[in-house]
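Quick one, probably user error.
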């Protein structure tokens, strides 16, 4: 298992090498968190997922145009988003790797700790914003940026777990 999520930089190398077209690119849209969508685009959206109105289907959203950034070039060290399981498998094949099973992921995410509420131990939930990138504030429409990030954070923003893996909680 790699120490970080797949970054935009690494995914871009895969796309440049293989010509892979992601499912989001093929479909022509992907869901984007509403607060990341410019108001002129919000006005154009005419459908939502009932009960999850904070996710909007946005034409043109993809790994290359993830929102709120218009261009992935500014966030190459952030995790890639708007990729499907199919895209992840294609990436793994190119990289000579495979996706972990759920059991393997759970074990790796815990970093060697057992019987703890959090992967970093039994600390309080108040530690979340200093240990991982999760939504802070009143979900879904009143975010805060106590950790300094609205959206994803660079792949090595927080301390790694006991196995040397970064961001096994939160970030995408």
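Nope, works fine. Designed sequence:
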């Amino acid at each position: 298992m790699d120490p970080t999520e797949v970054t935009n930089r690494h995914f871009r190398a895969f796309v440049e090498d293989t010509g892979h077209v992601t499912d989001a690119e093929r479909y022509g849209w992907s869901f984007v968190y509403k607060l990341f969508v410019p108001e002129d685009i919000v006005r154009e959206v005419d459908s939502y997922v009932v009960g999850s109105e904070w996710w909007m289907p946005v034409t043109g959203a993809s790994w290359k145009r993830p929102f709120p950034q218009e261009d992935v070039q500014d966030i190459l060290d952030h995790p890639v988003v708007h990729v499907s399981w199919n895209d992840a498998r294609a990436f793994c094949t190119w990289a000579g790797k495979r996706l972990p099973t759920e059991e393997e992921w759970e074990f790796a995410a815990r970093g060697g700790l057992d019987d703890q509420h959090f992967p970093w131990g039994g600390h309080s939930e108040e530690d979340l914003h200093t240990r991982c990138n999760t939504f802070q504030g009143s979900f879904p429409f009143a975010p805060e940026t106590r950790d300094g990030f609205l959206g994803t954070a660079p792949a090595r923003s927080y301390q790694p777990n006991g196995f040397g893996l970064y961001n096994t909680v939160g970030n995408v």
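The beta strands are 29-33, 55-59, 136-138, 142-144.
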